[in-house]
Design brief:
It is built from 19 helices and eight strands. It is α/β, with parallel strands linked by helices and 482 residues long. The chain has an eight-stranded mixed sheet, sandwiched between helices. Helix 8 runs antiparallel to helix 14. The longest helix is centred in the last third of the chain and has 34 residues.
């Protein structure tokens, strides 16, 4: 009996996905560039299963039923292209290659087109959930060649996480790089969520002077509210974890955050598409700032920086902080969906935003209770341009506004940096302001560069230039929108 699917790459994610597939009755053929890794896997975690090994790509291909389905769980970039190039001569028309890594979506666009010319289907699929998700049920976001989806769908939906209604957290996203784009936005929102939580933690620790046990209790309680989510849950676990000397382990971890690029890609694409992804981009910059550890230590001493204690009823501040965190979190998701909407329109992907929310409901890192409400919002209005306009989320934003402003203002006053939480509030203030000061900005551009402007008393699309000094002339520059 031949294998149902082959997986290349036996790092932790690859191994756990293979074991997950095996649990659901699929025969998997495992391959790794290093033969010893195959032996270690077969004699270790895969021992006693139906998983078989392949020590060459030819053996892998020979052991699979047609159409062959081969999933790459390798480092994104040149490694993926290298395996594709080696597989092409071994495959037949109609066979399927799947990239399950964190790939930048333009690479997926290119690979779909290249392989289509050779009659081979390509799927670029985001996989979220980390090691545990891969093993017991990840969120899976496939896109690429739609002809391939019916052959992959039973496997992917079987191994994916399930909602409380047993709906698989996996569905077809769209053509070409749509799956990897949605995964990229997922990771961008993840950056934002994590930064918001760390800002709340610093406000409690440095502003309110709370102990780690007190903060752990707060996050446990918050997880029983609309903030219920995987990241809030693990934060309570982290704050309660003690090192061997009985002290909180988290305070012994160096405060320099790493990143693998997906948050940066999200910000770059937002700038390219003209979408104000302010919160997520601030979260990326916060990681960049954290990496300047030596400079920050010197600057603190140079400026004599000290945070002031936040005065007042601690429980009142904790509730205000909860509301501010919730409202900011909504803005993080809202901006992410704005970016997906623009990308869908630009690329003709026809994304189903309710389905995206469903795919994120379980298994993935940003899974949270209110994703069900996001799905409901897009079921009611599939063309919803701003998530905060939905009645449920509008109500939360309005009810949280006073507390949100209170926390933002106090953080500025006492010197606690909260870049993502404050930028979320500033975004909403800007988004809900009918007339912004960009009229003055346009006048400045026209003054020094003859870039022209539109008038409120003339039809939109008609451009004007003023010779502001009487010396600049009447010739205008080319006008375009970024």
């Amino acid at each position: 009996m031949k294998g149902d699917i082959g997986v290349i790459g036996l790092a932790v994610m690859g191994q756990n996905l293979i074991l997950n597939m095996n649990d659901h009755g699929y025969k998997v053929v495992a391959h790794n560039r290093t033969a010893e890794k195959v032996d270690e896997f077969l004699q270790g975690p895969a021992k006693g299963t139906n998983i078989v090994g392949a020590y060459s790509l030819q053996e892998l291909v020979d052991k699979l039923e047609s159409p062959r389905k081969i999933m790459l769980m390798v480092r994104a970039g040149d490694v993926v292209d290298s395996f594709i190039d080696k597989l092409i001569p071994l495959l037949d028309k109609g066979d399927i290659i799947i990239d399950g890594g964190n790939t930048n979506f333009p690479d997926t666009n290119r690979r779909v087109a290249t392989l289509k010319e050779k009659g081979i289907h390509f799927i670029g699929s985001g996989v979220s959930g980390g090691e545990e998700g891969a093993r017991f049920g990840p969120s899976i976001m496939p896109g690429g060649s739609p002809e391939a989806w019916p052959f992959v769908k039973p496997i992917f939906q079987a191994i994916s996480a399930k909602t409380e209604n047993n709906e698989p957290c996996c569905d077809w996203v769209g053509n070409d790089g749509a799956g990897h784009f949605v995964k990229m936005v997922h990771n961008g929102i993840e950056y934002g969520d994590m930064q918001l939580i760390t800002e709340a933690y610093q406000f409690m620790k440095d502003g309110l002077g709370m102990t780690h046990d007190e903060m752990q209790s707060v996050f446990i309680e918050w997880n029983k509210t609309e903030l219920n989510s995987y990241l809030v849950e693990i934060t309570s676990d982290i704050l309660g974890y003690k090192d061997t000397d009985g002290e909180p382990l988290v305070e012994k971890i160096l405060d320099t955050a790493g990143q693998k690029g997906t948050g940066k890609w999200t910000g770059i694409n937002a700038l390219d598409m003209g979408i104000p992804l302010t919160l997520i981009t601030e979260s990326v910059f916060a990681r960049c700032l954290s990496s300047l550890k030596d400079q920050r230590v010197e600057a603190e001493e140079l400026f004599g920086k000290k945070e002031s204690i936040v005065e007042g009823d601690k429980q009142v501040w904790i509730e205000a902080l909860r509301q501010a965190l919730l409202a900011s979190k909504i803005i993080s998701y809202a901006q992410g969906f704005m970016l997906m909407r623009e990308a869908s329109n630009e690329n003709g992907w026809d994304l189903n935003y309710g389905n995206v929310a469903l795919m994120w409901r379980g298994g993935c890192i940003i899974r949270s209770a209110f994703l069900s409400n996001i799905r409901d919002a897009y079921d009611i209005d599939p063309e919803l341009s701003f998530l905060g306009s939905d009645s449920y989320f509008k109500g939360i934003l309005e009810n949280s506004m006073s507390a949100w402003r209170k926390v933002a203002a106090k953080s500025m006053e006492v010197g606690i940096p909260m870049p993502s939480m404050t930028s979320a509030l500033t975004f909403l203030d800007g988004y809900t302001t009918a007339r912004l000061p960009a009229n003055l900005l346009q006048a400045q551009r026209d003054y020094f560069g003859a870039h022209t402007y539109e008038r409120v008393d003339k039809p939109k699309g008609e451009f004007f230039h003023t010779n502001w000094t009487g010396k600049g002339g009447d010739v205008s520059s080319t006008t375009y929108n970024s």
